[in-house]
Amino acid sequence: MGSPFTVARMSCVAGAAFRIKGRRRCAIFHARFNLAGRWNRVISNKRWTNRHVGRHRRAMMLLALIGLIATPPTGGAAADRPRAEHPVTLAFRARRPARRYSVTVPIGKPRPAVPLPRIEGPDDNRLPLVVIDAGHGGHDPGAISPHNGRREKDVTLAIARAIRDELLASRRVRVALTRDDDRFLVLEERYGIARRLKADLFISVHADAAENSEAHGASVYTLSEVASDREAARLAARENKANIINGVDLGAHGDAVSSILIDLTQRETMNASAEFARLLQREASDEMTFRTTAHRFASFVVLKAPDTPSVLFETGFLSNKGDAAFLASASGRKKVARGVREAVQIHFARRLAAE
Ligand SMILES: [Zn+2]
């Protein structure tokens, strides 16, 4: 059963008073409150006048009204339900949709920085640091030679090691390789390593391929937003594709950011890079064949370090039989490495003299 209010309501609904044996009596009982707030039941036996009935009815109506507000209409178990289930509230609540939809917005996770490679050479921080980057690696083989089946990623790693050994033998510079095994690195990670090591020069080693098997010879590329020719632009597009796996660009920056970096801080770096590119062609020409227009410009991602002079060294064409054999041989690699060594030594000697 409900509260006394429920009873009062029932009595009121029944008419509050009716006749028993010809007398008006209270229907069941009526509640009255004393000053202390306690209520007590009074069974009234006295004869009711119309005035009594009216007063009683009003009192019952008031109690019933309070009862309506305070008591759940179903009473009993319903009284234990939480207030939120009250039907009045429910009537104004929006219906829960039958199906729920969710939208997932991918937010780029920052890639954990790749571990820095070991710096080799004399333990002297004053000596310039050269970072050699063997192009491609891991799932990205680069170009594949139709003549000896050699993959660019293996050829570049062997040449990078040869250059390292040659530079270390000079004892005039310190050297680090971005990779010394068959692993994949995003292009930004490659120059990122050079920047984190505070490198003084960055050389990315590659070997080209062309449909025309007659195309041969090396070339040196430096960064420019405007490619020097269509072939340079195509090559940059191909090399920059290393970042794209299953249509997802693993590089962190959009074009806008890259452009700003270039516009604001790279002028001096680009000049130093171009100077080294010309030097490399001049010094290595005794050892290996260069193309007629050996120094070219294009927007290579791997050259976008704003503060590290950087070149991309296309050492030859794997699609050319002569070049492929030259680059695959230890003697060929040694010649390439000697050319780089000469250029590096002159480059830093000039820098030292200019200070
Ligand atoms: Zn390449």
Automatic annotation (TrEMBL):
One of its GO terms (molecular function) is N-acetylmuramoyl-L-alanine amidase activity. CDD domains: MurNAc-LAA (cd02696). GO terms for biological process: peptidoglycan catabolic process. It is an enzyme of class 3 (hydrolase). Pfam families: Amidase_3 (PF01520). One of its GO terms (cellular component) is outer membrane-bounded periplasmic space. Residues 191-345 form the MurNAc-LAA domain. Keywords: Hydrolase. It comes from the Bacteria. SUPFAM superfamilies: Zn-dependent exopeptidases. It catalyses: Hydrolyzes the link between N-acetylmuramoyl residues and L-amino acid residues in certain cell-wall glycopeptides. Its EC number is 3.5.1.28. PANTHER family: N-ACETYLMURAMOYL-L-ALANINE AMIDASE, N-ACETYLMURAMOYL-L-ALANINE AMIDASE AMIC. This is N-acetylmuramoyl-L-alanine amidase. It comes from Sphingopyxis alaskensis (strain DSM 13593 / LMG 18877 / RB2256).
